[in-house]
Amino acid sequence: MLIRKTVLTLRAVAGLTCVLAILAGTTVTAFEEEGNVRGTIEAVEQDDDGNVTVVSLYDNEWGPVLISSEGKGEELLDHVGAVATLTGTIVETGDHDRFPYVITVSDYVIEEHFEPEDEPDDEPDPDPDPDQ
After folding, report:
1. Per-residue pLDDT tens for 30-69?
2. Span 16-32, pLDDT tens digits
3. 3, 41 in Cβ contact below 8 A?
4. Are residues 22 and 1 in the same domain?
5. DSSP H helical segments within 58-129, as ranges?
6. Which of 19, 85, 114, 127 has the smallest number of CB atoms closer than 10 Å to its CB?
């Protein structure tokens, strides 16, 4: 009888703990890992003035990864178009359609920076000199 009361009490405490966690908004993270992602930084959202407010990149291993504005992520808003390697904490978001992972960046290396003048122009080259 004592064992049965103990089991029922433990079940009640466990159930109450789950209810309190849900009411408090606590979520259980399915995945969290320190790691690296590499790809071209892309703008995801912009404010009304056209300033980039959220960025992401596509990594060959991880797929689309949202870059958190926490840590050094905000510094990357100025590097849209750059190829970068980011180091930090990668967390599964549960949003498997758009961004299954988010990274909080602790360090990064800009490998290539895209400059608008590097973009090829749409105008054809002038005709070569016919005298040559």
Report:
1. 689 999 999 999 999 999 999 999 999 999 999 999 999 9
2. 444 444 445 555 546 89
3. no
4. yes
5. none
6. 127
